[in-house]
Amino acid sequence: MSRIKKITATGRSLALIADKSPEAQKAYKELKELYRFIKPKDADVLVVLGGDGFMLRTLHETRDQPKPIYGINFGSVGFLMNKYRPKTLIKRLEDATNVTLTPLLMEATTVKGKKILDLAINEVSLFRQTHQAAKIKISIDKIVRLQELTCDGVMVATPAGSTAYNLSAHGPIIPLDANLLALTPISAFRPRRWRGALLPHKSVVEFEVLEPEKRPVSAVAGPTEVSAVRHVLVREDPTAHFMLLFDVEHALEERIIREQFLV
Question: Could you tell me the pTM of the whole model?
């Protein structure tokens, strides 16, 4: 954290990025009057104004040159963001805690043999494309665990993503330091009572789409959606890391724990 203190104290190595919403644009102008910012590619720390979706998009767009990112919420939930307090920005950056997120790598192969790779910070999801349910074989570390899952879809979620779509699909909330991934079905029809599984974070998850021409399935990782997939492999990418900064009183670990007690 000493490096962050040094660069934020000078104000010379901060960049400001804002969503197009009126609220974020207003804050953008206010902060530009209070502090000096430089271009994102030259900065050491990025200050991002927007919601969770905009934060995820920014992380993807800066993944080739990852930098610590401090998000300020101008969206709805703001799970990955902090509150807007313009006059104390530098002090809060100096005191911020950091969380390093390891994304998932999706390797999707289409029915025509095309291979697409992309990263996902929250989850990699498979969805049926038509009115017919998808049929998917699931293997973990090359061992078949479900010969046939009939469902609307299925996902692999990271701890950071466990409180997002995974939670909406009744998947488990995972603490950040648990070293686990959630394998969660979306509206499973058969086996009817299967509710998913918790997997070691180094697991390699393989999805084989059964009857892909009759029951087409798409795969989604971050902003990338691949239609008509035949095979999808999901694993952690240990070479990729994203660092988020949080106010001490709004640490991400505490938010994830707190989510488990909301009623």
Answer: 0.89
